[in-house]
Input
Amino acid sequence: MASQTDKSLLSAELEEEDDEEFRQLLLQATQKIQSAMPSVRDSKPIQPQPGFCIKTHAGSQEKVFVNICRSLDIPPPPDLSRQELECLLESDSASSFRIPMSLGEPHAELDNSGNGCAAYDVVINTGFFSKVEADPFFKEFFITVALEGLAEKYKMDINHPEWRILKNRKFMGCISGQTIRTKSSPVIQEISSPVLPKFTILAEPAGGPPEFLLADIHLPRVGSARELSLELGQDRVVLRGGPGPYLLDIYIPHDIVPELSHARFHRRTAVLTVKMPVQPQLGPP
Output
């Protein structure tokens, strides 16, 4: 899989007033995205295993996928029976019950329609995962707690009643390693989280092999292209910068030509448009 950084985007299409700023943006294309979190004292890396995938929405339209994963490195919650949990939830002590879980950073993915969406990885103890799988009451309770945790951490309006478990998919995208605190804590979470911008990627022409891909990346917090850094690989788009900061790192299902790609940042709409020619497909010999 090719993912080398493009270093020759200086021929990008520019709006006149953004010319110098966007040249500064493109000159930063040789910088590498720091994919690994800095080492943190009293922490350890883990590699979660897939479990099941939930589809829901943030707001009314934006699709959100939640990968429920498992790991022996996550401590289990108190071992309660179903009857004990029901009694606890009906008591005044319900808020004291905690499920240790690791809430991963959002990662950009493409849904079955080719539209951009966000996916989150939530990791729980392997033994507790088996309990959740075996009892629908525990599963529904846990999913409610997990979605509330994501909503609180990432300030999202997750549409709880409409979530559903996908039957033929255990996870959306790729499950990345996480770093968890090893000190005792009610909830184990990532240290910091970037902001995943909204984006769409369209293939042109719509019917037949695409000649180019057109990406629109919405960056409402950005006022100048000087705040951004863009990298293109043969099958990868990486954008970072701005307040938050924004971070978009996505693999695309076509091989593009980075040196012939063009980009434009629109100040009025705060949208970055990237036009990427697709490598022509070789015909039969």
Residues 136-154 form the longest helix (19 residues). The chain has four helices and 16 strands.
